[in-house]
Each structure stands twice: as C-alpha cells, then as structure tokens.
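Q: What would this chain look like folded?
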Amino acid sequence: MTQNSLRKPLEASDFHIIRLWHEIASSAVIKDASDIHIEAQQNSCIVRFRIHGDLCLFKAYPKTDHIRLITRIKILAKLDIAEQRLPQDGRLAITVGDSIGREIDCRVSTMPTLFGEKAVIRLLKTTNAELDINHIGLTDHQLSIVNKCLNRRHGLILVCGPTGSGKTRTLYSFLNFLNQPHLNLCSIEDPIEIRLQGVNQIAYHPKAGLHFNAIIRALQSAGGPT
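A: My prediction, written as structure tokens:
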C-alpha cells in the first residue's frame, strides 16, 4: 500500500477518524493534559491522558480505529505513514477555541509495539509570555544566583529533574532572559519544543548528519554565538 493510497481516503472521506481525533485533542486541552498516549491493545485502542504527572484512561476505542487514527496523526505531523517498523518524531498543531482559534503546538512520537504503533503527543502549551524567569518558582536568593550565571560570558548550567518537574520551561525561560537584539543567540535542541522569536534554534538530527559536534563546528565557522 502506497503513501498516496493511504492519504487519499483519510483526507477526502474519513470523517469518522477526523472527528475522533478532534474529540481526543479537544478533550486533552479541556482536561489540561500534558500528553496524549494512543496505544494498541490486542482487541482495542486505548487513549490515555497524562494529567498532573499521572496517566489516566480517557477512552477505549475499537481496534479497527487504531491504524487509521495513527495514520491521521502521522499525516498531520508530516511523518512517513508507510513506515511502521521504526520510531518517528514530528510536530502538529491543535486548534482550540470557536472564534479566534488559538493553536497549541504539539510534539509527536511514534514507536512500534506488539499490537501496533503507539503515538505520544506532547502538548506544548507554554507561550513566550509565560517564559518569565521571575515566575518559574525560584526564591529571591536562587534568582540572584541564576541572574549572575546567565550574565557571564561563558560557563555551564545544568538543569536536572524528573519528567514533569519543569526542566523545559526553566531552560526556555533562561533563553528568553538572554534573548536580546545585540546577542547572536543560538541553541541546539533535541527536539525544539517552544519556538522563540530571535533565537537561532537548531534541531539535533543525527540521521541527517546534524550531530552536536557538526552543529558546533558550523556555528564556530559562522562566527559563533555571542
């Protein structure tokens, strides 16, 4: 089965799957979920939401919906719908709201499992306005130390913590703090989760030859970040 033969019915006539995905995505936003897990079981398709760090069952769908739902997500994320044996990563947007329609950027990961592919959709709901270093939970003393470190010309800052602890928001808040017109600010990310205007964000992509050392050499050749 070719990619075109799979793409045509999904985009032209499969309104059931389109509605199903809309139901899942809109419910995840309403329930303030950080992740959507779509999993193939032996006789069903399970959808779970990660809410405040815990996975909660949303719904179980017929197994016949599973492959078409995964294919729909792959099309939206611009992934290879014919490749079902290897993990893939991509991005898609969820539109919420009736009038203006705010878009939520999402990161998509797919992987093969025993009964079919699993998809995990991470909802990246943090906006640039929320990336204020003063509002990430640091005490005044901690904020003073971080400010001094970020204003140095060189050095290393390690941000560590378990899943859901706020590492991503903390790192992007640091980038946002440094984001000034007189600086050539560059980041190497795996993957790019939040798009920052004014920052040269580079995605780590080893399959395309974009390893960390290759990216760093390219940055040095181009004058390097300042």
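The chain has a mean pLDDT of 87.
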